[in-house]
Design brief:
The structure is a homodimer.
Chain A (H helix, E strand, L loop, with lengths): L5 E6 L3 E7 L2 H6 L7 E3 L2 H10 L4 E5 L1 H11 L4 E4 L6 H12 L3 E2 L11 E7 L5 E6 L13 H5 L1 E7 L6 H16 L3 E5 L3 H6 L1 H10 L3 E5 H8 L4 H11 L2 E5 L5 E5 L2 E5 L13 H14 L4 H16 L11 H5 L2
Parallel strand pairs in A: 1-5, 1-9, 2-7, 3-8, 5-6, 9-10, 10-11, 11-12
Antiparallel strand pairs in A: 2-4, 7-8, 12-13, 13-14
Helix pairs in contact in A: 3-11, 9-10, 11-12
């Protein structure tokens, strides 16, 4: 690979999370499917927020969380995404910058407010997400700095970018730029319903553009419309160079050409909140991969960082993740 | 007492907290005195925020936290305080309403932003607070609804109200109204530096207006400018009808005329963050007092709710406090 300035450049929705506890009855009453993400408009966001319990706000966004995790691991991470110049936008910018991620996308000065995700955490620690995309939809191809893409070993994109039309164009442009610079492109499938919304295009993308695919069990089954994980695993083998498939407590499976590696989940004292588990797994794996760890060691680091994420409330790392690398 | 609609009406600064971890070196570098609160202007707030680590936002404000605690205990609580009509103001209003506190003070539509408190939590779990008063300074006598004061068994005021000039007038007006309605007036001294700023007036207030004084060891020593807790205890006995003095891990002391009760602190598995400990002690005590618990039982409830507050990050209750009453 040519010299690089960053290990990973993430492009994604810039979102502030609002986490609150909710019971199963609340989910049922609002017809919410536990463990998934749905898109809501401003009116729905206001209504749901009014009915939610009191919450805690912190910066989020799937790929942004992953970049925060990489920076906390001591990696060199950059992020592209759009906030509005409002209070939540200031919070997002502060947090991602303070943790050491390069973030220079200017805030939108008009249009909708900074995106927020109303996250309901049920007593079983599962999170159900309701996203108002807001200013995230202002992300477009002109925000993709070609020098930044060329200077990053991996460009990491989230399937969620397929929801706002201009962000999807930014995605495609970034992927092309990365490949022309001899770099890798990684994709997270984001959510089974997101896959459902964009299945045909995602299938094409995985087969033709993506070097490293990150997906959980529900997402990869949704992508290939199969009932069993093992079928999905065999299908993705022929389509994508390298796939990293996570299965919650059942650990993860790495599919690399003919090779298959099965990695255990890391032990957790108490599962408190699943928010950010997949994002932080991606952080550990991509950090290891970019720094030439072998695949199993990279996945073990992912398992360890994911375990940290689920043992506290919120999606961003709370402890010094660098120590995890020493203890691998 | 005449019939009441509320157990406690709190009047205080409406603040959103930004909690972040910091080390001792960071405090030293910024000349901050651990465990205290200082007032900062908008410029200082921006500068400190830029240098802080990534944070978590949640609704705060000392008396507002106490009202949230009373509501979580099943008590009837109301709050008067000023936010701006901005994103942080919406968060404050949502949280205090969602937990069950009556809050109808309209948001300011111009002027400074909603108040925020930048709270640095050191590894020893102590919090150091930096408050930008913002829209809190818009609170004035016209915000004090006389019917609300007359309908509340106790009107609870924070010493911090003495900092914004108009809020102080609101304080004096509320206190007079409460007494004319045959109600009690309680005061928290808030912070030793706050006492330092307003000592002469606080001494007068305690002697002439306040029925129930809540203070911690540092605050009561600062009020009477004495070196030892016991001296302060004897001085306050002659001045105020009922004083509730907290001493962190050393428990609390109730001084009621000639009576003195010494109550142990409640056990805590792990002290994580002292933010809100005093506020939640006040919640337990005032809830018990308003519901005719004897003084020792009310203080025990305070100790228990304070223990809950310090065993998690943030100032508002995270568990069902009603169960604490059954276990008293």
């Amino acid at each position: 690979m040519p010299d690089s300035q960053f290990d990973v450049l993430g492009i994604g929705n810039a979102i502030v999370d609002v986490l609150a506890r909710a019971d199963e009855a609340f989910l049922a009453q609002h017809s919410l499917v536990k463990g998934t993400m749905r898109l809501i408009d401003e009116h729905q966001a206001r209504q749901l927020y009014e009915e939610m319990q009191s919450g805690v706000e912190s910066s989020g966004g799937s790929v942004a969380n992953t970049m925060a995790g990489i920076a906390a691991l001591g990696g060199r991470a950059a992020f592209i995404g759009r906030v509005r110049n409002d209070q939540l936008g200031d919070i997002f910018r502060h947090d991602i910058t303070a943790i050491g991620v390069h973030f220079s996308t200017p805030a939108a000065t008009s249009g909708p407010a900074t995106a927020k995700c109303l996250i309901l955490v049920t007593p079983d620690a599962e999170r159900t997400m309701n996203t108002y995309l807001g200013a995230s939809t202002a992300l477009g191809p002109s925000d993709v700095d070609p020098d930044l893409v060329a200077a990053s070993k991996i460009t990491y994109l989230e399937g969620y970018l397929w929801d706002p039309e201009e962000a999807k164009k930014a995605f495609i442009q970034a992927s092309g730029l990365a490949h022309r610079s001899g770099r890798k492109v990684a994709l997270s499938l984001s959510d089974p319903f997101c896959v459902d919304r964009h299945r045909r295009e995602f299938r094409e993308l995985v087969a033709e553009e993506i070097d490293i695919l990150l997906a959980n069990e529900e997402e990869i089954k949704s992508l290939y419309e199969v009932e069993h994980f093992d079928e999905a695993l065999q299908l993705v083998r022929g389509e994508c160079e390298l796939s990293v498939l996570t299965r919650s407590a059942a650990g993860s499976v790495i599919v690399n050409g003919e090779e298959t590696h099965v990695i255990n989940a890391a032990p957790v004292d108490e599962v408190l909140d699943a928010t950010g588990a997949g994002d932080l797994f991606a952080a550990g794996f991509l950090h290891g991969y970019a720094n030439d760890f072998d695949l199993v060691r990279a996945a073990r680091l992912g398992a360890r960082t994911a375990a940290e994420a689920i043992s506290h409330f919120g999606a961003r790392p709370e402890t010094d993740l660098k120590a995890f690398i020493e203890h691998l």
